[in-house]
Predict the structure.
Amino acid sequence: MIEYINRGNKETRSGFGKALLELGENNTDVVALCADLTDSVKMYAFASSFPERFFQAGIAESNMIGVAAGLATCGKIPFAGTFANFASGRVYDQLRQSVAYSQKNVKICASHAGITLGEDGATHQIMEDIGLIKMLPGFTVINPCDFTQTYLATLAIANHYGPVYLRFGRPKVPDFTSANTPFEIGKAIKLVDGNDVSIFATGHLVWKAIEATKILSEKNINAEVINIHTIKPIDKQSVIESVYKTGAAVSAEEHLKNGGLGDSIAQILAEFIPSPLEYVAVDDKFGESGKPDELLAKFHLDSIDIVEAAIKAISRK
Amino acid sequence: MQIMSKSIEELQRIACVVRRDVLRMIHGAASGHPGGSLGCTDFLVTLYFNIMKHNPDSFRMNGKGEDMFFLSNGHIAPAWYSVLARSGYFPISELSSLRKINSRLQGHPSIAEGLPGIRMASGSLGQGLSCAIGAAIAKKLDNDNNFVYCLTGDGELQEGQIWEAAMFAAAHKVDNIIAVVDYNGKQIDGNVEDVISLGDLQLKWVSFGWKVLKMDGNNIQNIIDTMAHAKSLSGKSMPIIIIMKTIMGKGVDFMENSHKWHGVPPDDAQLERALAQLAEGQNEDY
């Protein structure tokens, strides 16, 4: 089994910020907008290095999305950043009409996604955004798992024409993926090879899935871990091939059951390879205040929950 | 790239033709929005045939090196489609496909079907001004000194995003945009004043940091003069808006000044009565 090493805890949002700065240096068409969260979303380095290409939108996200769509019309590559809550639900109609339906090359940079936003509580902890955005025709939805992958994903979406929702988070989490692993939009990455159950994980829960495999191996269960960084378009072939081999699946995400990665996996299984699927996700409820680790435990999004889901999925074969 | 620079008489003749198009298109589709379309016809005709620098023969989405127009009140699409076709963006015969299956002329403007001349979908109100501001900023970044024009409705100004855009454009000194409000005083539920009053609209825009002009949107000479004045105010670190008084349903007496014609098609007899009032454009019908 490949051993994944945590090189140190880092924020995924910082991986975004590092890449955005590099994009600014290398591509003069890259512009950025932010709605009064420049430091939190890690856009400060870009803003201070390229002030002529950075546009402070203030606390007015709807307009920010429209301005981004206008910039994209003229050939710019706008990266519009704010908290995921305000980058999805608050501006849904703008994303729908001015970006998705209008086929604009806008990059929505959604930070502080999921319950690990922590202490600010449910008003800010959006766990519906994957579902909301994947419903919009033409939108690509990406949820990288660590600092390095977020950095690579940010570089990749600049070279991809079309609207993208890039979802990342607030807390420091293990940075473990290799900078040498190519990031290809829509191509899942197998992290752990196994035969007994397939764990499809996205975002912060990818590391939790890897931890879960260690516990499972002590129970003589060989779990496969596949990192679904791109939830839309999803890598059907990787999902089918893995479940064909294992016969059981677990989805793991920091999102509601409704509309998230799990539902995308369920669609594939139902259509191509009917198999048991267990969701590790939040079941139709809002979050609450607390520390990220406490919340992951309370809302059953931890490694032990993935372990239990895997065992249950296997028992349903 | 060209400015067409038609005479007043020619513009009036084209406006008559466009009004006939609008009525026949909406009648043919048995749905659509005649009131605002007729009210804004003189402005759109003057903009495309006298004011804008644009290239109908080879439409480019990015609008580099030319003026750009964004229609925010997308429901007046019939007038815009007619003006686009009549100025050469696509075949005039295509106007008859409005709102029909497999048409590029969607009920509200769309770019998904690839209709030349359209750069942004609109219909859900309040969004177009933000988009136009984005395009204006892009022009500044590209050192492209052409203009971005945007038309909004007046009822549309009830949308909060409009005022977000208003603040943004002033704060960022977007002084290459000329926005125009179709101030006909009507919306679906009645008079704008009665639905949700806009209050002192001129004062609102002034307080948001915009240069504000007024215009008679059904007087072509006044449109030409006011738009020239607006252009002369550009480049002075302030965005520009024109409050354009129009008559909803202009050109058809029984439609004029009635909010009931916001979104209702004429029946056969009403179409006949309406076209009789616009008879001089008859020989140019599609």
Remarks:
- The mean pLDDT of chain A is 98.
- Residues 12-26 of chain A form the longest helix (15 residues).
- The radius of gyration of chain A is 19 Å.
